[in-house]
């Protein structure tokens, strides 16, 4: 429970208020947005550093930094006082954005982007913190609400960055991001209760325990496997979409491809609903529903070659992906409460690997067999995820 002195004892929880959950959702969205700001600004950035290779590597560096943060920073939430850790990461993120805003060369911006991704992994500190603040019966709802903030940040970041960079230049976006991040840090400092970590392990032992956790928890492996498959087909779509829209019968440019991100509102709306359903009916059923929705999405995308088919397919794909990504944490966070951050680290790294493989596989399939090759490959992966999810549903029941 949350004591009068504001300290959260490990293992005891009360229900977090709506204001606290809303603040965590906003902070999560503010943090995750920094990973995606650079994507719509790459052309503008490249023109600032003509002839340099570094700008083309900025998204990769940001994602690599994020993955490194997942492995090296997120487990610290089990070892350190979590609220102070979250605030500290926000402050490092603000400093990283300052380095990006004043970067005089493409390589300096590349280094700043690496640090931005590394510190932006604070998103995955906030989500298990929300899970720790809620009881078992309300954990899915709390996580779902915070996930809505994360999804909103992913959605709005590209739209905001594209508009700011077009009108004011790419540096303006990084300058604007600094006060936003500081607002997130301030909010977390004010509202998050102190917690007493459940482990006194040394950092090296903490990292070594990741392998033991992976080996000893089949539920974690299964949830990570399913989510990795779903994120693979999700990433495959977004990797190929712009290329597909350039082809007949569409002949659209990158601006139309960007507008498809607005359809991501379906995922934002689905997240809290999926969380509540996971609390009431169990996460297995929600994950299974999400997996089959993803499979149906790719069947639609493969067979309905029109703009309406793309829109409907994206809505199904986003609904399925986000339903599963909210319900699966309900499974993994209940496995070892004292190791929630380490469990989350393994889960998100596995999902990230799946997304990377999905993007690479989609590019290969596109070169070999075009859109139908991508769709057939994605259908096979989504079918595997759907069948695997039935095992999760069986265990949950």
From TrEMBL:
Keywords: Membrane, Transmembrane, Transmembrane helix. PANTHER family: MAJOR FACILITATOR SUPERFAMILY (MFS) PROFILE DOMAIN-CONTAINING PROTEIN, TRANSPORTER SCO4007-RELATED. InterPro entries: MFS, MFS_dom, MFS_trans_sf. This is MFS permease. Residues 1-397 form the Major facilitator superfamily (MFS) profile domain. The chain crosses the membrane at residues 20-37, 86-108, 146-166, 172-192, 225-244, 256-274, 345-365, 371-392. One of its GO terms (molecular function) is transmembrane transporter activity. Gene3D superfamilies: MFS general substrate transporter like domains. It holds the Pfam family MFS_1. It comes from the Archaea.
